Amino acid sequence: MNLVPHAAQAKENLNPDAHPAPALSAAQRSNLSPVTAWGYAWWRARSLALLGARGFTLEREAVLFTALCRPAAGQVWLDVGTSAGFYAGVLARAGARVTAADLSPAMLAVAARREPDPAISWVNLNVEASGLPDASFDGVTVGATLNETHDPARLLADLERLLRPGGQLWLMYLRRTAGPAQNLLARPALGGLTCPDPAWVARQLPGCVRTDGLGVGAVQFDRFVRSDRTL
Ligand SMILES: C[S@@+](CC[C@H](N)C(=O)[O-])C[C@H]1O[C@@H](n2cnc3c(N)ncnc32)[C@H](O)[C@@H]1O
Q1: In angstroms, how far is CA 127 from the centroid of its own chain?
Q2: CB of 140 closer than 6 A to ligand 1?
Q3: Which of 90, 122, 146, 204 has the lowest tally of Cβ within 10 angstroms?
Q4: CA 144 to chain centre
């Protein structure tokens, strides 16, 4: 005999700590393919210029990031959706210790070959359901991974949680232009990409202050710092 009424039983079965992983977008699924991983570094080196940030090479992106965020020896950083390891490599060369996370084992294998630095730990992890401890990073880099998730608000909230007070969040993403290409790529079957507005992004990070924001073509770079007060 079941003594627990059905509705109450359903509530009892809810695990408040459970954090189910969200469904993957088509763009996220495409990155699981070894073929995508094989070609990704080639695309990444050209992608910003093709997306309207003319002349914006990876070297310039690294200089911009390093000048604004000043990653330093002894700091602990998380690179979210590392792909071929671009930000992880920049951080490791600055002396930081890096957790480089990606959903895709194929991407991680490519990245580990390209950036064989012992300061980088390659981790196969869905950062939207990471379970990583609060305030565990001095900095977080997110190079375009924000565009791939179904739920950018959830991702941003979790990244804010992972920053220690004073910690930095660096975002590079395609911002909303409402152009025809973005509208097409937003369709679930064609990628399910989300291109957020920078003001919307800032509103998802109530515990952070945006210190820098730069739009180049459709590409947006933002730096946030987590404020000292408790969230
Ligand atoms: C646009 S690429 C990132 C490029 C890379 N950050 C860079 O700056 O060169 C997106 C990457 O994020 C990964 N990714 C997407 N959603 C993720 C998630 N929720 N958790 C971890 N990795 C994710 C994908 O597998 C893919 O490798």
Answers
A1: 8
A2: no
A3: 204
A4: 6
Ligand 1 pocket check for 221: Cβ under 6 Å: no
* Residue 181, phi then psi, degrees to nearest 5: -65, -45
Angle between helices 86-93 and 58-69 (to 10 degrees): 50
Both tokens assigned to 21: 């992983």
Name the CATH superfamily for 23-226: Vaccinia Virus protein VP39 (3.40.50.150)
Distance CA 115, CA 210 (A): 30
Could you read off the pLDDT of 51-96 as tens digits, one per residue? 878 888 999 999 999 999 999 999 999 999 999 999 999 999 999 9
> What pLDDT score does 81 carry?
97
Does the pLDDT value for residue 139 go beyond 50? yes
Instruction: Indicate whether residue 149 lines ligand 1 (CB < 6 A).
Output: yes
Name residues whose C-beta falls within 8 Å of residue 79's C-beta, 6 or more positions apart in sequence.
85, 87, 88, 91, 98, 99, 100, 101, 140, 141, 143
Residue 143, ligand 1, Cβ within 6 A: yes
Domain ranges of the chain: 23-226
For the packed helices 105-114 and 34-50, what is the interaxial angle rounded to 10 degrees?
A: 70
Lookup: tokens for 90: 């920049």
Mutate to test the pocket of ligand 1, among 50, 122, 148, 151 (most ligand atoms within 8 A of CB): 148
* 8 A C-beta contact, residue 64 and residue 214: yes
| Cβ atoms within 10 Å, residue 213 | 16
